[in-house]
Amino acid sequence: MASLAEKREAIAEEPAAADPAARPEELRLLEALLFASAEPLDTATLAKRMPEGVDVKAALVQLQADYASRGVNLVRIANKWTFRTAGDLAWLMTRESTETRRLSRAAIEVLAIIAYHQPVTRAEIEEIRGVVTSKGTLDVLLETGWIRPRGRRKTPGRPLTFGTTEGFLGQFSLEALGDLPGLEELKGTGMLDTRLPTGFTVPTPSDDPTLREDEDPLEPGDLELTLAPTPDPEPESGGES
Fold first, then answer.
1. CA torsion 138→143→145→148, rounded to 10°?
2. In the chain, what are the domains?
3. Which helix (H) or strand (E) holds 186?
């Protein structure tokens, strides 16, 4: 039977367990910042909280790789970083949903037009669709947080221009608008007729939030404006009710 001294010697010779403190400190710091934030964070914001000399971009790539096979993944959305439930485990969160809203076909068409043609006005949306777009359709999309007013077109009436939001990218698991399917991909999924007119193209959407030359900045109160004029009240009747 082994003596106490022999047992101690055997234990001393065993390889030491991995020391959690041996993990690079910058990875631990990034984890803490990202887990604590309710919103995705960009590289510049993270860099301000990191020790001097840390290569934040390289550390984020390493952290992303560390979490690739876990229940939560580190993902980049609109050049910002956040932790999300792994895509193959999304079904676990189904019961947490408080409300499921199915978009109408009109809303889906309008959302697609805004995504690919932004910045675009309501009149331009109607021209592309070939039908009048109701106030309610745009209201629903604004309520989802997937679209936003960008500015005002420098044309008579100065109509609002619309674009998509980071919420849109997150909802559809897109890192950038450039990840939207192109012409051939849309054909392959059956979303476009394969017998399209010669020269038909799908616009290349832009992530650039900078206003274009034909746009003016939004004015105070623009975000609270309704998308259609409120009807004038009916004149009061002169007779008795």
1. 40
2. 23-87 (1.10.10.10), 105-223 (1.10.10.10)
3. helix 183-188
Condensed to tens digits (0 to 9), the pLDDT of residues 4-29 reads 455 445 544 544 444 555 678 999 99
Do you find a cis peptide bond into 119, omega within 30 degrees of 0? yes
Distance CA 138, CA 227 (A): 8
Helices (H), 1-99: 4-13, 25-36, 43-48, 56-66
What phi and psi values does residue 73 have, to the nearest 5 degrees?
-120, 150
How many of the other CB atoms lie within 10 Å of CB of 158? Answer: 14
- State the DSSP code for 153: E
Contacts of 63 (CB under 8 A, 6+ apart): 27, 30, 31, 74
- Dmax (CA) for the chain in angstroms is 113
Q: Global pTM?
A: 0.59
CA dihedral 168, 172, 176, 180 (to 10 degrees): -110
For residues 146 and 148, give the distance between their C-alpha atoms in angstroms, rounded to a whole number. Answer: 7
Rounded to whole angstroms, the Cα distance separating 206 from 118 reads 8
pLDDT tens-digit map of 139-166: 999 999 999 999 999 999 999 999 999 9
C-alpha 41: how far from its chain's center? 13
Do 169 and 77 touch, CB atoms closer than 8 A?
yes
